[in-house]
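Encode chain A's predicted structure.
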Amino acid sequence: MHELILHHYPTSPFAEKARLMLGFKQLSWRSVMIPPLMPKPDLTALTGGYRKTPVLQVGADIYCDTALIARRLEAEKLTPTLFPEGQEFNVASLAQWADSVVFQHAVSLVFQPESIAVRFATLPPEFLKSFMADRGALFSGGQASRLPLEQAKHQWPTLMARLQQQLAREEGDFLFGEPSLADFALAHALWFLRGTPVTAPLVDDYPEIAAWLARVLGFGHGSLSEMSAEEAIAVAREAPPAALPEEAFVDPNGFAPGQRVAIAAVDYGVDPVEGELLFCGAEELILRREDPRAGVVHVHFPRLGFRLETR
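Encoded structure for chain A:
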């Protein structure tokens, strides 16, 4: 068995989602720090161009997007489960909504001028300028657009009221009674808002939600140890990719195994990754690519939210 290697940086909200899932499952993992801004040459040596954070590496298999990382962690250790029996559809659907709609609101609220001034107060002005330019490029060309701040402020009480209602209706301490992927998908956006005193009241003014968030964050991050990017690339280079899933290859648009394709996100961070299409499953796409540093790797993407194009 290969070690779980998470490529991330401390302030990334989606990385916090992945770290909490690792903690929930009480897994041991290796931590590789990546830059928050492009270029990210060590990361893209593994992914082929995918730049979003985090990325999970298991040997020569590279998993992009926390929706798919959750399923890979589920395969690594089934219990405790991220997808409680009988709630699989509800959990996955609410998590997808939280990762898009709630996170979109959080981004607008976090990047309002007053919050930015506090968040970047100790950093040089040049970094803030570079950061904003990088995030502008991240949201260029995709279907996602920046939600106007006024609209985010206007709608936030509705989102919090719905969350409070769901927590009040369940007998347990989590969104569906027992912990699930839905909790972690909602928690990371609220954790992001808690980052400055400007936006923290958007969470802390709702005591039941703040208490639920404390329970989710209480799972911690599991057992981690540091690893360098060079060591992680060497792991990929020296390991054979895992066997493909036994699930049937299904694509209604005529793509076939062995075809040269590009896979890209449709919302933001739409940089395409080119390679040989190996697998199309109900939840997962797998691409084979070869890199001068990392060797032969299999790059895994969720099917939902990503597109295939011929090359």
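The chain has a mean pLDDT of 96.
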